């Protein structure tokens, strides 16, 4: 069994809002099967040695810290998800930044943060707010010397350009942008984390092909991005990313896991 597996981006304590999910939403049925303790146990059994759990707002940030105290395998990244951030006033955002600063010893990264032009229709004011929040989070990361875990959807160019003016280590989670732009990101030193749904996604295969092994990490985005239809994702599934990366890079699977593990150590510890 492969050892030293790492999940660098997950939401193991994700709370589905059952009232908001439509009856025909496939997550409606699956949501009831989601059990944090069970997936953590399963991760440990399958040799996952660290899971970076990401907060997305003040409530999930607090929960993230609580969970990492309870389970040593859980490492916290605290942040502000681009769309969640629109719900809070500037004062509330600044208060959260203070909260994160106060907890800097208990976290290993700032995340999940970024830009999203896809999820909702934004007016100019909202777009500016999203950008301002992102910049504030990057400044925070820079001031407390932590890496960042980035979400970007339909905003990859913007995000990569913004990151180029910061001297921080950045992990791009579930990158969906153009390959040419990925090349620019690689030159900038950005790290890509590869989810298990690479098994059914050629774009991720191409991304792995062009990215040096020392700029790759594995993630799951649990409970999303499952490699299996009709199942929720969980950290133990990072093995699918390892197998695929090993195949593409023509490396032994354990060797690949060890290399990804040392990338994790270099970036976050
Ligand atoms: Zn996420």
In what range is the share of β-strand residues?
A: 15-25%
Cα(first) to Cα(last) distance is: 25 Å
Instruction: Tally the beta strands.
Output: 8
Q: Report the bound ligands by name, code or SMILES.
A: zinc ion
Helices and strands, in order, run as EHHEHEHEHEHEHEHEHH
- The total of helices stands at 10
From the alpha carbons, calculate the radius of gyration and give it in angstroms. 17 Å
The neighbouring-strand order within the major sheet is 1-2-3-4-5-6-7-8
Please, how many domains?
1
In the CATH hierarchy, what is the class? Alpha Beta
Q: Name the CATH superfamily classification.
A: Metal-dependent hydrolases
Coarse structural class? alpha/beta
Write up this protein.
With 269 residues, this protein is an alpha/beta fold. It is built from 10 helices and 8 strands. The chain has one domain: Alpha-Beta Barrel (TIM Barrel), CATH 3.20.20. It has an 8-stranded parallel beta sheet with strand order 1-2-3-4-5-6-7-8. Helix 9 crosses helix 10. The chain is globular. Bound molecules: zinc ion. Zinc ion binds next to loops.
For the structure shown, list the relevant keywords.
TIM Barrel, binds zinc ion, 269 residues, globular, alpha/beta, 8 strands, eight-stranded parallel beta sheet, single chain
């Amino acid at each position: 069994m492969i050892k030293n597996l790492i999940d660098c981006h997950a939401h193991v304590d994700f709370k589905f809002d059952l009232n908001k999910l439509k009856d025909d939403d496939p997550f409606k049925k699956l949501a009831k099967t989601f059990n944090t303790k069970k997936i953590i146990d399963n991760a440990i059994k399958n040799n996952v040695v660290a899971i970076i759990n990401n907060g997305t707002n003040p409530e999930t940030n607090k929960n993230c810290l609580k969970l990492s105290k309870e389970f040593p395998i859980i490492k916290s990244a605290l942040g502000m998800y681009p769309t969640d951030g629109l719900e809070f006033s500037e004062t509330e955002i600044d208060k959260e930044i203070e909260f994160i600063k106060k907890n800097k010893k208990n976290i290993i990264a700032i995340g999940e943060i970024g830009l999203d032009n896809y999820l909702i229709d934004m007016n100019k004011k909202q777009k500016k707010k999203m950008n301002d929040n992102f910049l504030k989070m990057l400044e925070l990361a820079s001031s407390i010397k932590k890496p960042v875990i980035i979400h970007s959807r339909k905003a990859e160019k913007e995000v990569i350009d913004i990151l180029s003016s910061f001297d921080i280590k950045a992990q791009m989670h579930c990158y969906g942008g153009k390959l040419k732009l990925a090349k620019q990101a690689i030159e900038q030193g950005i790290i890509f984390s590869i989810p298990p749904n690479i098994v059914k996604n050629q774009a991720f295969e191409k991304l792995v092909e062009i990215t040096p092994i020392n700029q790759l990490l594995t993630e799951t985005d649990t409970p999303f991005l499952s490699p299996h239809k009709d199942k929720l994702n969980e950290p133990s599934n990072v093995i699918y990313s390892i197998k695929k990366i090993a195949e593409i890079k023509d490396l032994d699977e354990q060797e690949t896991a060890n290399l990804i593990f040392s990338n994790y150590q270099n970036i976050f510890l």
